[in-house]
Design goal:
This protein is 27% helix and 24% strand. It has 504 residues and is of the alpha+beta class. Strand 10 (215-219) and strand 11 (226-230) form a beta hairpin.
Length: 504
């Protein structure tokens, strides 16, 4: 009998609905996954630092499950990694294999029962499971699993738990781990980058299109086989791991203790469609894609933006932090000086405390504050990576004008967002996307800018120095790479019981 210890500590109630005043004018985060397999390392501590590096991908909950032979200990809670894990908690997580997760909710509300990793027992022993992405057939899969597994107790409202149950079902029906994971993946449609802990080692898997990133590396000598898997290379860097390569789209990789080479194989062959917003915004600028840091790519699209949308101005500023590299590129190409016109409070996370009416009227200065002595009397070019709803961008423009800017010209280093994402990014429904409702002139008037221009889609993908056909650009053009039925909506609450409030 395999021993599974659940160390789930429930957090305080957190409502699902983030107040509109606090939601940024850009797509909101994807999740982060991380895993370490090493017999002689503090795998929980290493995973803590990996999740710390991936904190930008999700701030709602964090969790780590650790295998100590056939015993699994799990700790997860609501909040940031630094809040969820203390030295005392990590000391209680010894073992050889750790699975970690940072969550931003895309299917299933923001509450403790939806935190990951998911932990299940099977015929072959315990399984710990973490998922980045979003399924477009979650309702269909849940109906099928409920029929096939009437004894199953779904404890969350996430699509991630459904994938885990599909693996459990295949294992209990007689499959080995590799076959069970393949079979479960074949039942899923959508985006999924997975790390799966089992008594036979670590499995990593990407959906056939590879919409969400997943990379791997090793620590120490390759013969010692200390393997690391991360959503981004910045997670490898923080613990001193090498970057050995990507888990390829449609690939499953099996890492085992004592093996100097993982077992790599394709479970499906489909066209690669990496989410281009990983390049523009989601991934950290120090993470590497296509042989270079994203900082270099973002500077380059700023240069292209300056070439495509020139304007006479006195200063170029970026909206911190994600707009800064493109602003530097815009300045370098245009010759307009770059300056720090906006100061960001980097200690402000997602807040659920509503400010006073006076604070709301003051705009977004809880997070960003303009510098009058930099902006006063200047024609200002403001660079941001995207505009989704238009709410905070409008307040930002008003604040820059209040600081004394004589002209405000906004330049966006991506095309207009006109379609929602169903693959792991929370971009609202189409009627909430400002570029889907208004013309360029109408958006410009709504924001209160003197001019507004976006980067072209062609330049966005060409600047990546990769095959332009290998990117998902659905949020810009509606060309969804994965077929969806008409019942799929943008609601993250699709699996919530009707009338149940999204609280713990």
């Amino acid at each position: 009998m395999h021993n599974v210890e659940g160390n789930l500590k429930l957090g305080l109630a957190v409502t699902d609905a983030t107040p509109s005043f606090d939601r940024p004018d850009k797509p909101e985060e994807a999740c982060g996954v991380f895993a370490v397999l090493a017999s002689d390392q503090p795998v929980a501590n290493l995973t803590y630092f990996g999740l710390y590096a991936l904190q930008h991908r999700g701030q709602e909950s964090a969790g780590i499950a650790v295998f100590d032979d056939l015993k699994v200990r799990l700790h997860k809670d609501m909040g940031l990694v630094s809040k969820v894990f203390t030295p005392e908690v990590l000391e209680r997580l010894p073992g050889q294999l750790a699975i970690g997760h940072n969550r931003y909710s895309t299917t299933g509300s923001s509450k403790a029962c939806n935190a990951q990793p998911v932990l299940l027992n099977t015929r072959l022993g315990p399984m710990a499971f973490a998922h980045n992405g979003n399924l477009v057939n979650a309702g269909e899969l849940r109906t099928a699993l409920a029929s096939d597994l009437p004894e199953a107790e779904f404890t969350s409202t996430t699509d991630s738990e459904l994938i885990a149950f599909a693996i459990q079902q295949a294992v209990n029906a007689g499959s080995d781990w590799d076959s069970a994971i393949r079979a479960a993946a074949g039942r899923c449609r959508g985006a999924f980058s997975l790390v799966i802990g089992t008594p036979e080692g670590l499995f990593a898997l990407r959906d056939g299109h590879g919409i969400r990133p997943l990379v791997f590396g090793h620590m120490g000598e390759i013969s010692e086989a200390r393997w690391v898997v991360s959503s981004e290379t910045c997670g490898l860097d923080i613990i001193g791991s090498s970057f050995d390569g990507d888990i390829e789209p449609g690939e499953i990789v099996h890492f085992r203790l004592g093996q100097s080479e993982p077992v790599r194989s394709r479970w499906v062959e489909e066209p690669s469609k990496l989410c281009v917003f990983e390049m523009i915004y989601f991934a950290r600028p120090d993470s590497r894609f296509f042989g270079e840091s994203l900082y270099s790519y973002r500077v380059r699209i700023g240069e292209v933006l300056a070439r495509e949308t020139p304007i006479e101005a006195d200063i170029v500023i970026g909206v911190p932090d994600s707009g800064i590299p493109a602003a530097i590129g815009y300045s370098q190409y245009s010759g307009i000086p770059f300056g720090d016109g906006l100061i960001k409070n980097r200690y402000v996370g997602r807040t659920f405390i509503q400010p006073t009416q006076a604070m709301r009227e003051a705009g977004i200065r809880v997070k960003l504050n303009p510098l009058p002595d930099v902006l006063a009397g200047k024609r200002v070019v403001v660079i941001d990576d995207s505009i989704v709803r238009g709410t905070t961008s409008r307040k930002l423009v008003a604040a820059i004008r209040d600081a004394g800017a004589t002209e405000v010209h906004m330049r966006i280093s991506s095309p207009p967002v006109t379609h929602p994402c169903f693959y792991g990014i929370d971009t609202d429904t189409q009627d909430q996307l400002i570029a889907a409702r208004l013309t360029l002139e109408e958006i410009s008037a709504h924001l209160g800018v003197d001019s507004l221009a976006y980067l072209s889609k062609e330049s966005m993908v060409e600047a990546a120095h990769a095959n332009a056909e290998n990117f998902c650009t659905a949020c810009f053009d509606g060309a969804y790479p994965i077929e969806m039925d008409s019942s799929v909506s943008g609601s993250k609450l699709m699996l919530e019981p009707a009338g149940i409030a999204a609280t713990v």
